[in-house]
Write a structure and sequence with these properties.
With 152 residues, the protein is mainly β. It has a single domain, classed as Sandwich (Jelly Rolls), CATH 2.60.120. It is 7% helix and 47% strand. The protein has 2 helices and 10 strands. The strands form 2 sheets. Strands 1, 2, 4, 7, 8 and 10 form a 6-stranded antiparallel beta sheet that branches. A 4-stranded antiparallel beta sheet has the order 3-9-5-6, with no helix packed on it. Strand 5 and strand 6 form a beta hairpin.
């Protein structure tokens, strides 16, 4: 997983402040249907402060996720209290409803939202007919617009 703070120019042009690049290897150690931290996982502090505002989210799937016998792989992004608060369930792999490479998903369930407790952003990947442990391909980019409104 690579977390990048986007430049001021990129943020002005596209509104997003951060990019989280993930590959299938980031999902392999995780359990299907169990949330795991994606932000601020590699940065300090370890939790986003109360008042952090997430105003936008988009997900790009450059390479579809693949695993033997997998028929469906769904992704949601949220926080501890509401797993889909930031990004509603979308397919990122599988054969039930195949998606094309480089598919983009926009927006969310309840974005914009403001954290009322210190928390982190988590994603949950739920697989049908297979296991995250046997993923063999797939990449995704998560773009977030995050601001610490408590500093206003």
């Amino acid at each position: 997983m690579i977390i990048t703070k986007l430049s001021a120019e990129e943020t002005r042009e596209h509104q997003f402040t951060h990019k989280i690049a993930m590959t299938f290897a980031d999902f392999v150690p995780e359990l299907s249907g169990t949330a795991f931290e994606i932000f601020p996982k590699l940065t300090q502090p370890t939790l986003l402060p109360i008042g952090t505002r997430i105003s936008a989210c988009a997900v790009q799937v450059p390479i579809i996720f693949v695993a033997a016998a997998m028929t469906d792989l769904q992704l949601v992004i949220g926080d501890t209290a509401t797993p889909n608060r930031i990004f509603a369930t979308k397919e990122i792999g599988g054969t039930t409803t195949p998606i094309a490479a480089n598919t983009w998903y926009d927006a969310a369930t309840t974005v914009p939202c403001t954290l009322i407790v210190a928390d982190s952003i988590k994603c949950t990947a739920t697989v049908t007919g297979g296991s995250l442990a046997i993923l063999s391909a797939g990449t995704l980019n998560i773009f977030l617009a995050i601001a610490d409104a408590s500093k206003l």
